[in-house]
């Protein structure tokens, strides 16, 4: 192997004492002299700055932790760390994937809010001033929350509220 040249990379890094940092790394580009080598040419990389990375691993981790553990929104974390929304969102997803179990615990009580439950069924109100309206089988905007209650759909006698 021999050094073929140099590449300057400027990965974004964590701020220090509230101020932006400027990280510059002059990486070596290597050339492999082995005949038939599939890579031939490649640049140096370290754990914090993998090949083609434009931000350091610790900045990415800090962004994910700011959202997952620091109660920051993605927008706030992106602004604070000078990053874009999609990059912080991806960092958060990566952070969550590490701390969350692969399969969630089985659900015992399911909460549903701001959604219609059941199929809307329509019937015609014969009074002349009113048109069709929902009659049975659905309630909108209902929250199901308390444990131990009956979660079956409302009986047909109960009028649907709109
Ligand atoms: Zn090689």
Folded structure, characterized:
- The chain is α+β, with helices and mostly antiparallel strands.
- The protein has a domain of 98 residues.
- The chain has a three-stranded antiparallel sheet, with no helix packed on it. Strands 4-5 form a two-stranded antiparallel ribbon.
- The longest helix has 15 residues.
- The structure holds zinc ion.
- The site of zinc ion has 4 residues, from loops.
Summarize the structure.
This protein is of the alpha+beta class and 162 residues long. The protein has helices spanning 57-68, 74-81, 85-99; strands at 2-9, 25-31, 41-43, 122-123, 133-134.
Separation of termini? 75 Å
Query: Fraction of residues in helices?
Result: 10-25%
Order of helices and strands: EEEHHHEE
Global geometry: elongated
The poorly predicted ranges are 138-158
Q: How many helix segments?
A: 3
- Which structural class is indicated by helix and strand composition? alpha+beta
Overall pLDDT level: 81
What small molecules are bound in this structure?
Answer: zinc ion
Explain the layout of strands and helices.
Blueprint: E1 2-9, E2 25-31, E3 41-43, H1 57-68, H2 74-81, H3 85-99, E4 122-123, E5 133-134
Antiparallel strand pairs: 1-2, 2-3, 4-5
Helix pairs in contact: 1-2, 1-3, 2-3
The chain binds zinc ion.
Descriptive tags:
binds zinc ion, elongated, 22% helix, 162 residues, two-stranded antiparallel sheet, 3-stranded antiparallel beta sheet, alpha+beta
């Amino acid at each position: 192997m021999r050094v073929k040249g140099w590449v300057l990379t400027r990965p974004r890094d964590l701020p220090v004492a509230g101020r932006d940092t400027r990280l510059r790394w002059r990486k070596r580009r290597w050339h492999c002299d082995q005949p038939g080598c599939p890579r031939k040419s490649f640049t140096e990389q370290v754990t914090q700055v993998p090949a083609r990375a434009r931000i350091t691993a610790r900045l990415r981790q800090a962004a994910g932790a700011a959202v997952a553990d620091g109660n920051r929104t993605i927008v706030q974390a992106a602004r604070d760390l000078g990053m874009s929304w999609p990059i912080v969102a991806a960092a958060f997803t990566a952070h969550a994937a590490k701390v969350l179990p692969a399969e969630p615990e089985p659900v015992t009580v399911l909460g549903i809010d701001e959604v219609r439950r059941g199929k809307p069924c329509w019937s015609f109100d014969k009074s002349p001033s009113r048109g069709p309206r929902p009659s049975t089988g659905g309630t909108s905007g209902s929250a199901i929350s308390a444990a131990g209650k009956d979660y079956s759909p409302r009986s047909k006698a109960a009028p649907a509220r709109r």
